[in-house]
Prior knowledge:
Elements: H1 4-18, H2 59-70, H3 94-113, H4 128-136, H5 138-141, H6 149-153, E1 158-163, H7 173-185, E2 192-197, E3 213-216, H8 218-228, E4 235-240, E5 248-250, E6 255-259, E7 270-274
Parallel strand pairs: 1-2
Antiparallel strand pairs: 3-4, 4-5, 6-7
Amino acid sequence: xxxxxxxxxxxxxxxxxxxxxxxxxxxxxxxxxxxxxxxxxxxxxxxxxxxxxxxxxxxxxxxxxxxxxxxxxxxxxxxxxxxxxxxxxxxxxxxxxxxxxxxxxxxxxxxxxxxxxxxxxxxxxxxxxxxxxxxxxxxxxxxxxxxxxxxxxxxxxxxxxxxxxxxxxxxxxxxxxxxxxxxxxxxxxxxxxxxxxxxxxxxxxxxxxxxxxxxxxxxxxxxxxxxxxxxxxxxxxxxxxxxxxxxxxxxxxxxxxxxxxxxxxxxxxxxxxxxxx
Length: 277
């Protein structure tokens, strides 16, 4: 386990490295995929005088951190099982070992997959047991088919938001899913939009980023899109946990918000620009 002190220090270091990539220091990473951070800089060793013993990572902790960034893979084939977590999400990783595991993953495996409430989750095999999960649990809880052509043909519109600092879900999963939908249906610009939210948590606020607006004007944008045919080119986000009047501009992926001029806490000071996919 990586204690909270180290996780918090990791996020602080990542922000120090990548905060200004969008043109302003605002305590956020606009696009973690653009961030080039070397986690090896946190290794505990005699030459690393920057970090003290309560902040640096042991060899085992360093390996665990790299695994979380990478995401789980099958040991038999090397195939990705689930994406890794993004730079800037580190301070919330303990929730995965706590409430996410205890209240969701482990009970699901015990009751639905193995039908054994005494099953020890530490014995889970990330090769053969993944297949078992796919056959027993996935049909009941997953809705991941990329073939949404029937929905699209009926005039449906989908507007998705995803926090880059989500405590429970890998942030890049919706990006991957959107790519799969586009490959399957051939086009998505007229009916599917994904808005990635810097510093946001699971379905809204992340307490580690109290200055980040956590209310998104999605309903108004969706109504305007469905009823008047106006595709959402940006979204307004308001209501940060710290009670300030900070607003932020959210952009449809693969665009991200870049600072132009003015008040850094005003969404009008930013413009949406295309970023890497």
